[in-house]
């Protein structure tokens, strides 16, 4: 029986040129896609680049070029790398493409219309490396332990997703649907995070 196999690599962050780690991940996905095609499955393999974020902005500034010029150059390197490795991806998506922006906008609008997104001012300690506000628990000796950076005090107006309202049914769904998250240890990790209040999630960045 023909099944549907939808596979995606991570969309790679374009702060730098592709390296062996990206190639490894993409080749693994390609092997899996080829296996599914041989098995007669309706298969789709996606890869691409994530071209938004403060780190991209900073990398472009360091390279001395406009962000769009910078990401165009790095994205092109990824396309050429996968051609050289004969990766059989069906599509290559860039988050700066209009077709991507349109879908994300439509999804967020629907979630907003359902009342799950609201606007609020938020003040906290922000790690530039993590690109997010840290909780008190995450800060060790006044620093982000992952980046060894002192977080900055920032106040931002942001859109928030009402995550806490969805914790219970999501945890129930994960528990009652074996294989929903694989491998199982990651399902357990997510369940552990969902077992206590997560706070609402900041899902935007201010336009500066
Ligand atoms: Zn950090």
TrEMBL record:
Methionyl/Leucyl tRNA synthetase domain boundaries: 6-146
UniProtKB keywords: Aminoacyl-tRNA synthetase, ATP-binding, Ligase, Nucleotide-binding, Protein biosynthesis
GO molecular function, one term: methionine-tRNA ligase activity
Coiled coil: none
Gene Ontology terms: biological process: methionyl-tRNA aminoacylation
Pfam families assigned: tRNA-synt_1g (PF09334)
Protein name, UniProt field: Methionyl/Leucyl tRNA synthetase domain-containing protein
Organism, scientific name: marine metagenome
């Amino acid at each position: 029986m023909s099944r549907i196999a939808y596979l995606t690599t991570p969309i790679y962050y374009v702060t730098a040129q592709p390296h062996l780690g990206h190639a490894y991940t993409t080749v693994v996905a390609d092997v899996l896609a080829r296996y599914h095609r041989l098995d007669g499955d309706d298969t789709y393999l996606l890869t691409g680049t994530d071209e938004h974020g403060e780190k991209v902005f900073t990398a472009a500034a360091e390279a001395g070029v406009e962000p769009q010029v910078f990401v165009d150059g790095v994205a092109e390197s990824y396309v050429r790398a996968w051609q050289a490795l004969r990766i059989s991806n069906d599509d290559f998506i860039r988050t700066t493409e209009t077709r991507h922006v349109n879908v994300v906008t439509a999804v967020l609008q629907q979630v907003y219309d359902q009342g799950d997104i609201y606007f609020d001012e938020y003040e906290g300690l922000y790690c530039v490396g993590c690109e997010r506000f840290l909780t008190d628990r995450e800060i060790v000796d006044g620093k982000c332990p992952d980046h060894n950076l002192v977080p900055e005090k920032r106040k931002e107006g942001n859109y928030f997703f009402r995550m806490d309202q969805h914790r219970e049914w999501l945890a129930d769904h994960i528990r009652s649907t074996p294989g929903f998250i694989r491998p199982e240890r990651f399902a357990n990790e997510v369940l552990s995070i969902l077992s206590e209040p997560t706070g609402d999630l900041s899902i935007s960045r201010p336009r500066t």
